[in-house]
TrEMBL record, chain A:
GO terms for molecular function: ATP binding; ATP hydrolysis activity. PANTHER family: DIPEPTIDE TRANSPORT ATP-BINDING PROTEIN DPPD, OLIGOPEPTIDE TRANSPORT ATP-BINDING PROTEIN APPD. This is Peptide/nickel transport system ATP-binding protein/peptide/nickel transport system ATP-binding protein. SMART domains: AAA. The keyword Methyltransferase does not apply. GO terms for biological process: peptide transport.
TrEMBL record, chain B:
Belongs to the ABC transporter superfamily. GO terms for biological process: peptide transport; transmembrane transport. One of its GO terms (molecular function) is ATP binding. This is Peptide/nickel transport system ATP-binding protein. It comes from Glycomyces artemisiae. InterPro entries: AAA+_ATPase, ABC_transp_ATP-bind, ABC_transporter-like_ATP-bd, ABC_transporter-like_CS, Oligopep_ABC_C, P-loop_NTPase. NCBIfam families: oligo_HPY. Residues 27-266 form the ABC transporter domain.
Automatic annotation (TrEMBL), chain C:
The chain crosses the membrane at residues 34-56, 101-122, 134-154, 160-179, 210-231, 267-287. It comes from Glycomyces artemisiae. Pfam families: BPD_transp_1 (PF00528), OppC_N (PF12911). Its main location: membrane. SUPFAM superfamilies: MetI-like. This is Peptide/nickel transport system permease protein. It is found in: Cell membrane. InterPro entries: BP-dependent_transpt_permease, MetI-like, MetI-like_sf, OppC_N. It is a multi-pass membrane protein. GO terms for cellular component: plasma membrane. One of its GO terms (biological process) is transmembrane transport.
Amino acid sequence: MANISVSTSDKGRATGTKGDTVLAVKDLAVGFPTDDGLVNAVRGVSYELRRGQSLGIVGESGSGKSVTSMAIMGLLPKTAQITGSAKLEGEELLGLGDAELSRIRGKKISMIFQDPLTSLNPVYTVGYQLAEAIRTHYSDISKSEARARCIDLLDSVGIPNPQQRVDAYPHELSGGMRQRVVIAIAMANNPDVIIADEPTTALDVTVQAQVLEALEKAREEVNAALILITHDLGVIAGHTDEVLVMYAGRPVEHGSVDEIFYQPRMPYTLGLIGSLPRMDESRDQRLTPIHGTPPSMLNLAPGCPFRARCPMHQDICAEVEPDLLPINGSGHVAACHFSDQLEGKAPDDVFAPVATDLSVEAEVEAMDAEGAAAADEEDK
Amino acid sequence: MNAMLDTPQTAANPVIAGKDLVKEFPVRSKGILRRKVGAVHAVSGVNLEIGANETLALVGESGCGKSTTARLMMNLIEPTSGQVLYEGKDLTKLSRAQMRPMRRDIQLVFQDPMASLDPRMTVFEIIAEPLRVHGLFKNGGRDRVNSLIEIVGLNPEHRNRYPHEFSGGQRQRIGIARALALQPRVLMLDEPVSALDVSIQAGVINLLEDLQDELGLSYLFVSHDLSVVRHIADKVAVMYLGKIVEEGTTDQLFAGPAHPYTQALMSAIPLPDPRKERTRERIVLQGDVPSPSNPPSGCRFRTRCPLFKTLSEDQQAKCIDVEPLLRSDHDGLTRAACHYAKKKQLV
Amino acid sequence: MSNTAAPRLDAEAITSKERGQWELVFRRFFRHRAAVVSLVIFVVVVLFAYVGPFLWKWDYKIHSEIPSWAAPSLAHPFGTDKAGRDMLGAMMQATKQSLNVALVVAIGSTVIGALYGAVAGFYRGWVDSVLMRFLDIMFVIPFLVITGALAGAIDTSVRWYHMAIILAVFGWTSIARAVRAEVLSLREKEFIEAARSAGGSDWHIITKHLIPNTMSVIIVSATLQIAFAILSETTLSFLGLGIQSPDTSLGLLIDAAGASAFNEHWYLFYIPGVMIILIALTINFIGDGMRDAMDPRQTMVRR
């Protein structure tokens, strides 16, 4: 099962060496027009993804982490205003038509969503759906070849009895099994990039472990780059090489997984780590929550979007939104005016381990109000 | 066989205790007749004791019966058999009228803070509802609600807002305030933080800890997340397919779980620590949880048990035929329901 | 940052007085312009029908002093019909009778239907099975035939309340179905369990949580009921099975004027016609406004 044959009809792909850039995203921004104004869901995301590398994107709900990938895949509604660039092996993806996109989607980039039940069609067997994924891009492949390949794929994602399961309907499989079928479909055409958007959030922990293992294996087998989007820092720690932390539609810190976890230089990252209960620490350790909520993405106030929740904020934070600045030569960058003050700091040095702080919430509201007021003025 | 059993660990004086709780949900045929055609064994003989000012965590994966157990403990659903002892009374024997005053003492906090708040009520009305139901609102209820709003860390000026105007963490605080309105002694917390974003989750966990210290509450903390459990619980009971497979104090359990299921569960929880993650021992379970309408004979975990596969045929026969009971005569500190329990340090 | 925050917090302080549920509902209703305008028109229509007869010199009966086929004038603003009836007086009576029927049907069938559906959905099991089978039977009875037969069976001349009762008996089934479906999904919501765990009785849960949360369905059904009642009454009167002369209704007036729709007496036909449309339309807008007012999520309270 380790040496299943990679479909031979696409020599030259998926054999590139580890290290060359497959996906380059630059200044990607996405806005959604609404009745109340433009919601700036993504405000400038840039990253490069190399073959065989795995990039974790973390952020809370509404931070724009999923929208970024949906924009790259061309899955956003037509009303979305997308700017910037996303190049897959040098080919620009943004602005491609439906026909060109469907040539790329599933073949060069594939995506795995949170809910496996909605990504599978309930009226077809999993084998049919897998075969269809293959035959869409390689119409010359025979039925029996396709079926053999389906069984191989199901086997490689760890589905027991693939010869029988290939004829099963999605509802006959458990949640973890379905998600593994989705992974099998995603790897069917040896894609260059697999984007997994919260692939295990709907699953139990023991099943999550199975699915993550299948995902890891799938990635190694086709030597694809992986983008793992999740809110779970534990999953990020175990399955990625590089981490991009997003807040209010922007990356606020980017670095190797060790740098992010051991030397965070953005208060938000530090706060996230401090607010996480850990299984390897006894209970006397108080958690340090980040009080308040992320700002409204409609009419964002100028300055650092995190400042209202940040215990370190100063006057400059309200005026200038910090750029991603290098921390050292290694490519670790953080968007904070005071990132050098965070060197060697533990979460409870910065954040207070209390249950509530209403003053922070008042500041968050004040910041939203400021943004709305600024937008009103612009309208006039 | 009986020699291997020891008496259950008794807390000095449990506030509330469940004894041999069993809940089977009938599976009925369609149509007017609705004959009983089978049963889902949701909870099969669970014993729990929660002491004063103590947190007992009930851990397990979806469908293991942990939420059903919490609802049985507060007599919200009627058990098929078993008792719930509170203040010397068996709650399951009480009539609805007798149960009503008891409801004040045992309250529930839900997982999904949006679904558990009536979207058409203001925050004030939501928190006031339990007081009104028990006819306590006229007697200073207004002040009580206002102080509750402050206790859980909400802005009292927001009392006229509706649930959809709040963030997830704030909604969960509303749910906690509602549960506290009647000054309960026991709170059943059903996955209270698992629907929340991490940065917000920590604030709610801290709030629950503070409330316990200030009000002397007892918690039954239902969760699937061992990280949160380690942080908040005094005692832990691990459930699998309607049965408790291992229990002990939090320190005992995390020092070395002895049941293969607990071990697998613990090793499956990712640590937010890349270096530890790279070197950790991983136990990945195969297959899925069997259907609770037809659980395996003997040990219910044997179909997925990594230890079972390494056993000799005679040893396996014991797992298939004999149901393991919670016992502590193994090398670990916990009580584990496994014939071949063996301590294993994982964190 | 502080100067922009200040007015906002002031506004907050004013609204921070704790308000009752209904006060907030009213405030939201009066923000709905179409609903408020409709309410005003509807009130005028109601006054016209119920207070008008006391102010206008002619009633709806035939009087020998009234000329026949008189065109609208100051003496008879809506003209007169062939038999010598003042049409303004007749319109008042007709509107009143039609409103009587419509309101009784709407209220009666909504209350019966909502409670029936709520009970079936809430208790489920055999209660639901029995109640729903009965509904199925009600559904297959051909409505027009049976109402016609019932109306025909009434010995004395058919009064408006006969009509109202007959229509209400048949009108509630669709509401019951809609409410049951809504309640079935609502009863699984956690806030129902929360109310129960707080010690709330079934009655408390049905009236405080289930009914308010099905309000949008109920209101939509009730407004449709009003339209249904007015149109059914018109149809039955038109067929000679409804309210009978000398009493009158909008349907009867249209029936009587049916031949004049396209001749010089057109107003005899169009005035009651416009009245029917006016009532149905305003009720619809008022229903919309009420539905939005009762659902806090549908209106922008802040921002």
